[in-house]
Amino acid sequence: MATAASPASCFHSWSCNERGRQLSLSSSLFLPAASTNFQRDYGEKLITLSTYRSSVRRVPGFLSRKHKGFKVKCSITEKNAKPRLLKVMISGAPASGKGTQCAYIVEKYGLLHISTGDLLRAEVAAGTENGLKAKKYMTKGQLVPDDIVIQMVKDRLEEADSQGKGWLLDGFPRSSSQADALKALGIKPDVFIVLDVPEEVLIERVVGRRLDPLTGKIYHLKYAPPESEDIASRLTQRIDDTEDKAKVRLQSYAMNVGALSSIYADVMQKVDGNRPKLLVFEEIDRVLTDLQDKYERGLTAGEKIEVPSGVIYENKDNWRGIPTRLNSIPHSREIREYFYDDVCRATKNAVEDGIHKLKVQITIPELNPEMDVYRIGTLLELMRELAFSFARDGKRVKVCVQGSMGAGIFAGMPLQLAGTRRMLEVMDWGEYESKGTFINIGSIGANEVTDNDDMFILMAPQNAVGNCIIDDLQAMVIAAGDRPVIIVNPRLKDLPSAAGVMQIRGREKRMEFAGSFFVCYNFRLLYLSGTQYPILGALRMAYPSQYELYKRVDLDSGKERYALLGTFTEEPTTEEITAAFDGRDPKKLSNTGGLWKILFGSI
Question: Of the residues 21, 133, 156, 209, which is catalytic?
Fold first, then answer.
């Protein structure tokens, strides 16, 4: 093991994520004051721990005190093995959104993007041997023969940047002959992604496209109209962007991709492209991440290797969909961080899309006030992580918890929120004075809204017996204008007083406002009605995804997993959930119910 310079800090526990694998670091390790690598051989495994100072640590609130300004990167690899790089082909009809998805893939995975059209133009411009051959055909308006294009692709893939990054072949091969030629050269993808979009949708996309000849920007008359009449007046339509010509191109594409599907059947992944672009990429991202996990998994699940320094590496299967053992209390740090990340990602997506009245509803056992394992500390952690996720982008966030309601002997607040304002004030908000600059603490009400606030995150606003928080909440939303207001785990149902005031006076308007918040994240576990054990399944929605219904399945090994039963565009009803669990089509519900319909419930 490499020796270090004088130690700067000591970690008693640590967890990090290496390409999706959860690795926990326990016992104690003295980290050096400068960057260094620790490396150790264990039979066929090579364990590397890299420590280094991070230049981005000055971002407000990024660190809690225990991190001490260091990043830790763990890797577990086969000894003497070269890293497996992703090799991806993607195919899509004209107007399928292939270009957008290629940009997303390259941005996240750093692959070499190869488009044969761009490659031909570059070779011709550079005057290479292949370029000069291709130019003879291009100047005559003829198609460049396959052998020249194949040679260009082969040469490009053999260049050093491709060898070190992996590659993405964009729209190539187009025919079975091209695919066979690539296969003969040993060029085969790890995955062949096909964007599947209905023909009528593609035609609508093609026919509505317009080009601004001045800027080169592409518009669509329906989906991305020009910003002004001046721009609209100068837009032009490509000669090929007519319905008749689009149909011919689509027929040709369908024939070619049909031939390719038999060649790449073992690695083909069809992706529904008739969805919002972020949702399409979410599925592609899941496919590519699964591939990386498969190729880079170094240890078997649960295997531990103890290093002489006292460091223990433990590899765990990466979660896909829903973490397991959610009735094991308290939740592990990994499970809590899984949900914190899930909530933050969905909420940021919604805010970036311009939605400013948002609701997060998450009722894992530690965040479900109806369970006796409810922990206010977990909710406080979630609030902090959500605030940090926006503060890192330079947003000034006000985290709010309601104050006392009522007057005189009737003054008070819900028991679950008692003392939380003080906890927010004294909890760890990082070493770089994020609290008081990028993050401030406040109450719920219009008077808390100032010009210095960019957004507001409200912690579990809820009504109390005889008192209603909704009036203060509504006044705050109005004062905030178009600035985002995010309510986390609200409980805004009426709780009647002895006189029944909240049941009658203004209830309809209150409930209308309470229901006006856009749900950007929803997670709840499913049980038999009236019970909290065992878990039958889970319902999850993380914007912009649809609602996902999972069934918990016990495995022979004693473990469990969550199997996806289906997706819904809106939150499914109890009847629809019951139908899915019974193996029936939720869209074809009958009026007759059974035992499940009577007993099935959720919390």
Answer: 209
User: Cβ contacts of residue 584 below 8 Å, gap of 6+?
Assistant: none
19 as an active site residue: the answer is no
**Contact (Cβ atoms closer than 8 angstroms) between residue 489 and residue 367:** yes
Helix-, strand-, coil-residue percentages of the chain, each rounded to 5: 35, 25, 40
Check if 249 is active-site. yes
Cis-peptide, bond into residue 276, ω within 30° of zero = no
Options 98, 210, 540, 551, the catalytic residue: 98
* Residue 502 near residue 492, CB atoms below 8 Å: no
pLDDT one-digit tens code per residue, 194-222: 998 998 989 998 899 898 988 888 888 88
Would you call 84 a catalytic residue per the annotation?
no
Query: Does residue 384 have an active-site annotation?
Result: no
More reliable by pLDDT, 83 or 67:
83
Pick from 83, 63, 47, 61: nearest CA to 9: 63
Q: Which stretch of DSSP H or E encloses residue 66?
A: none
Between residues 115 and 64, the one the model is more confident about: 115
CA distance linking residue 431 with residue 60, whole number of Å = 8
**How far is it, in rounded angstroms, from Cα 215 to Cα 332?**
53
264-286: string of b/e by CB count within 10 Å (b at 16+)? Answer: beebbbebebebeebebbbbbbe
Cα 231 from Cα 212, distance rounded (Å) = 7
Is beta strand 455-459 parallel, antiparallel or unpaired with respect to 397-400? parallel
489 vs 460: CA distance, rounded Å = 5
Catalytically annotated residue among 238, 325, 422, 509: 238
Q: Which two three-digit tokens encode residue 448?
A: 């808390």
- Residue pLDDT, tens place only, 65-78: 233 333 444 444 44
- C-alpha 578/C-alpha 564 separation (Å) is 14
pLDDT of residue 602: 41
Q: pTM for the whole thing? A: 0.49
CB atoms within 10 A of CB 501: 15
Is residue 483 flagged as an active site residue?
no
CA dist., res. 441 & res. 437, Å (int): 11
Catalytic-role residue among 133, 174, 510, 524: 174
